[in-house]
Amino acid sequence: MPIRIQEADFDISAEIAALRHGDARVGAVVTFLGTVRDMNDGSAVKEMTLEHYPGMTEKALQEIIDQAKARWDIYQTLVIHRVGPMQPEEQIVLVAVTSAHRGEAFAACEFIMDYLKTAAPFWKKEDTPEGGRWVDARVTDEAAMARWTKK
Questions:
Q1: DSSP code of 59?
Q2: Separation CA 29–CA 109 (nearest Å)
Q3: How many CB atoms are closer than 10 A to CB 40?
């Protein structure tokens, strides 16, 4: 399945190997790996918790992948997104795209990640020395997504 929402960590090498296994057409594999930072907006982050709406989240991610496949000549995609509590340096998300050539894979991977950051139903809460706080999408995330909708 190209979309997995899970609490458990993942092995990026094993995931990439499985994604491209048996497909000799693949000339490019582009990945994005997101991790938990120890600082955000000037505050230390002790822990981050991600929540989602089961069923709705997977549907939203599938729609993003379908849009990427309609725009670029790509073969396989994989999105793994963790939920639950995570510590700084832990892996949060993996987006991987295979294609014949790097340009298609880079563009599709970036598109998927931009939409995931702004349109997928995930909620992020950070535990800081000042207390817990919910985190909204950044202006830079919104600007990154907007460039895909320009005509």
A1: H
A2: 10
A3: 16
Global confidence as pTM = 0.90
Per-residue pLDDT tens digits for 37-82: 999 888 899 999 999 999 999 999 999 999 999 999 999 999 999 9
| Lookup: tokens for 92 | 């949060």
- The Cα–Cα gap between 81 and 85 comes to 12
Beta bridge partners of 99: 28, 74
Distance of CA 84 to the CA centre of its chain: 15
Please write the tens of the pLDDT for every residue from 136-146: 765 555 666 67
**Neighbouring residues of 137: CB distance < 8 A, sequence distance ≥ 6:** 117, 118
Only one residue has tokens 């790097």, namely 102
